[in-house]
From TrEMBL:
Residues 141-153 have a biased composition (Low complexity). One of its GO terms (biological process) is proteolysis. Residues 28-85 form the Metalloprotease TldD/E N-terminal domain. GO terms for molecular function: metallopeptidase activity. Residues 112-153, 187-208 are annotated as: Disordered. Residues 115-219 form the Metalloprotease TldD/E central domain. PANTHER family: METALLOPROTEASE PMBA. Residues 227-442 form the Metalloprotease TldD/E C-terminal domain. InterPro entries: Metalloprtase-TldD/E_C (IPR045569), Metalloprtase-TldD/E_cen_dom (IPR045570), Metalloprtase-TldD/E_N (IPR002510), PmbA (IPR047657), TldD/PmbA_N (IPR035068), TldD/PmbA_sf (IPR036059). Belongs to the peptidase U62 family. This is TldD/PmbA family protein. Residues 123-134 have a biased composition (Basic and acidic residues).
Length: 443
């Protein structure tokens, strides 16, 4: 969306009585192909152009959004936003980001946009190749389908505080879901990848083969008795263990006082040697951006440094409430005020492979799927439904299902050991994680 259009919207808001305003323009184009059992099942194409406006009247604020960007629609959008702000309750911490914290160009080139435009036929070929490879694996009897997609988007922010910035990104995806069976037993297996650049995708055949392998490996799953044992979370889902950390150290949670880590700033939360980083400027990163969603200059952070919690994650509003400065973690869509989120979050790897972690643990559970997590945000008590593999003598013994793993995250974080098998598969990544002695509820 053009800078001049957003600047006109901001100017119109000020003329209508707003004391400050920011306009966001988002454009997106996407194409997705789904196949099942070798036949084309769905073609989905999307093109959107949307506008969001946030205005301030004193300490009152309102946000509105719409997909009609005609001059008449923009005028109505401005009128509605200012009228809503005048009726809103006061928020003493609201307002645009401080001018001194704004990012100034030229912005870093993060190599987020490829520009390659695969045809529908090419996407269909990829989806079919992935599914064919999955269906060809031993013990695979059926398929939920293969998919391939591409998308590109642009996001622009203009504020009355003097900021104007734009960034665009592309993404390419392949995924496949197959069904393994043995008699009446059936288990699903999935694999998929998304990258910023098309050339960085694995081959469809490798993705399909991995989906098939994962499905077949789950056949013969047993229920186990409740016990306490070491638990290893495989790298694909290990970040689910770290995710609650981010919610617990977000500025809004700290300001409300409902965080199990509210008294842990600058304290030893993890053991020495553990590092968790967040880097918005990672080249081709799936969470990368040259500035945050308030236009604030962002940078890499060592959130956990040698086990010590170094910072809260803040946008401008939560920083003002805490008497601190924003950390450049503002995140927003077209509607609503900014929240807080990370960009490219990474638990740095240790030195032991997953096999070596199993050898160290001896006997326990390797978790390969998780569902239905539950967290008490005030205490850190956490539980999650799981399936995976029981291992004995450091070697996989048999698949297990219908178990629940539980513990307190303060205790878990203090004892976890990261493996060496870090893979960058999304915007939050971790190696396999070993936690010694977790409660496992089974039959």
């Amino acid at each position: 969306m053009e800078e001049s259009l957003l600047a006109d919207v901001v100017a119109a808001a000020l003329k209508a009585g707003a004391d400050a305003a920011e306009a966001v323009g988002a454009q997106r184009a996407a194409l997705g192909i789904n196949v099942r059992l070798g036949k084309l099942e769905e073609v989905e194409r999307e093109e959107s152009r949307d506008l969001g406006l946030r205005v301030f009247v004193g300490k009152q604020q309102a946000t509105v959004s719409g997909s009609d960007v005609s001059a008449e629609a923009r005028a109505k959008l401005v009128e509605r936003a200012v009228a809503m702000a005048r009726l809103a309750p006061e928020d003493p911490y609201s307002g645009l980001a401080d001018a001194k914290r704004l990012a100034r160009g030229p912005f870093p080139d993060l190599d987020l946009y490829d520009g390659a435009e695969p045809t529908p036929e090419q996407l269909e070929d990829r989806a079919r190749a992935a599914e064919d490879a999955g269906r060809a694996m031993p013990r695979i009897s059926n398929s939920d389908g293969g998919s391939a997609s591409t998308s590109s988007g642009q996001w622009r922010l203009v504020t009355s505080g003097g900021f104007s910035g734009v960034h665009r990104a592309s993404s390419y995806s392949i995924g496949v879901s197959v069904i393994a069976s043995d008699g009446d037993e059936m288990e699903g297996g999935y694999d998929g990848r998304t990258t910023r650049w098309q050339a960085d995708l694995p081959t469809p055949e490798s993705i399909g083969a991995e989906a098939g392998r994962r499905g077949a490996a789950r056949l013969g799953a047993r229920k186990i008795a409740s016990t306490t044992a070491p638990v290893i979370f495989e790298n694909r889902l290990a970040m689910s263990l770290i995710g609650p950390l981010i919610g617990a150290i977000s500025g809004p949670a700290i300001a409300r006082g409902n965080s199990f880590l509210k008294d842990k700033l600058h304290s030893q939360v993890f053991s020495k040697g553990i590092h968790v980083t967040d880097d918005p400027h990672k080249v081709r990163g799936l969470g990368s951006s040259p500035f945050d969603d308030e236009g604030v200059a962002n940078r890499a952070w060592n959130i956990i440094d040698d086990g010590v919690l170094t910072t809260w994650l803040m946008n401008s509003s939560s920083a003002r409430q805490l008497g601190l400065e924003t950390t450049g973690h503002a995140s927003r869509g077209l509607a609503g005020p900014p929240g807080v989120s990370t960009t490219n979050l990474t638990l740095l790897p240790g030195t032991k492979t997953q096999a070596e972690l199993m050898a160290q643990a001896g006997t326990g559970v390797l978790i390969t799927s998780m569902f239905g997590p539950s967290l008490n945000g005030n205490t850190g008590d956490w539980s999650v439904g799981c399936a995976g593999f029981w291992f004995e003598g450091g070697v996989l013994a048999y698949p297990v299902a219908e178990i629940t793993v539980a513990g307190n995250l303060i205790d878990i974080y203090a004892r976890l050991i990261p493996g060496s098998d870090l893979e960058f598969r999304g915007s939050a990544n971790a190696p396999s994680i070993l936690v010694d002695g977790l409660a496992i509820a089974g039959k």
